Amino acid sequence: MSAVNPLVDHLFRHEAGRITAALTRALGARHLELAEEATQEALTRALQTWPFRGVPAEPAAWLHTAARNYARDQLRRRANWQSKEPAVQQFLESRGAGGAAEAEMDDTLAMMLLCCHPAISAESRVALTLKTVSGFSTREIASAFLTTETAIAQRIVRAKRTIGEAGLEMELPEGVELPGRLDTVCDALYLLFNEGYFASHGATALRRELCEEAIRLLGCIAEAGYATPARWALAALFHLHLARFETRVGDDGRLVAFEEMRAVHDPAHMRLADEALREAMRAARLSVWHVEAAIAAAHCAAQRDWPHITKLYDALLEMKPSPIVRLNRAVAVFRAGRREEAFGELAALEKEEGLRGYSLLPATQARLHEEAGNSGEAKRHYQRALACAMSAPAREFLERRLAEAGN
Fold first, then answer.
1. Nearest alpha carbon to residue 120 among 29, 24, 228, 20
2. What is the C-alpha separation between 196 and 391, in angstroms, rounded?
3. 261 and 194 together in one domain
4. Is 60 exposed, middle or buried (0-12, 13-18, 19+ CB in 10 A)?
5. What's the domain range around 372?
6. How many Cα atoms occupy the beta-carbon half-sphere of 267 within 13 Å?
7. In sequence order, which residues have a C-beta less than 8 Å from that of residue 266 and are 6 or more positions away?
8. What does pTM read for this prediction?
9. Of 1 and 84, which is predicted with more confidence?
10. Are 46 and 63 in contact (CB under 8 A)?
């Protein structure tokens, strides 16, 4: 059993979106909930049967088949099975046993475009994408949006209702509609990558497979012919972060403080980042992704130029005013030597409703007060941070910092 659960979890992250997208394409978007239900049922059956019967030789194919059979059985109980059966049969034949044959357009990309249809409210598009394509829980999405699980659940319900009522389907949009929907898809991929780079909940703080999935899905956009300088900049940002991924933990496997990260970078991702940046710089004007990639590149330097990084955050804040950007800028301001200004900004951010319960705000305050020699303030903010939700490794890290601040 212990070996099966991690495997199913891994397959859920890698296959759930593909299974749901393939079934939705075959059955029609109004059957999106059935496609999700079939996917969940396949994964549940895997957990129930594999520990006793053994893991099949092709586990991903097994899941695709189980989901397909469940959807077929459910539709047979409904009056419209006859009208849907040819579509299902074509779906089965086109993908064979493993569900991997080429389609006119990647099913996952098609599903993402459906989730980002303009008929769906802007606040619901990214949430639906993360839920349907990437298998995020409402809790994980709520953390990404700095809002409540109830609010996210309501957004997802409204989005699915819109798909059914408007008769939307998985199809490639045309004309002026496409760029906006692809931009929303990229917003979803940005959140997906962030959840992998620093998980909001769970037993692990770093989930590389989510980062790699974000890169894969961004690649689907490029391969379909929709690469732009801004999207190349986003690709560069992803690769620059992944180049430092392994330095997030020490030799003991535990999270390390930002300033303790080793100056070691994955050469393969640095090369891919350089290639993406060359394409990104063909832009007539810079995007948010360009500035964020520039900040990530500055962090990869052997010696960080904090005044320069602060100026980059100033530019980013003008383009993307948000509490998170202000929080990150405050750290740069502090390290550039403007400590009182940084502490003032952090104190002002405590009044931001969107950051309530966000552990990184008090954790950042604690660390900077610790560096400034304010041990009492450091301990107080570490305790505030530990009252927030976070992953188990992040909690262990903060508990360790609190203990050290008390000495």
1. 29
2. 12
3. no
4. middle
5. 357-407
6. 0
7. 242, 243, 244, 245, 246
8. 0.80
9. 84
10. yes
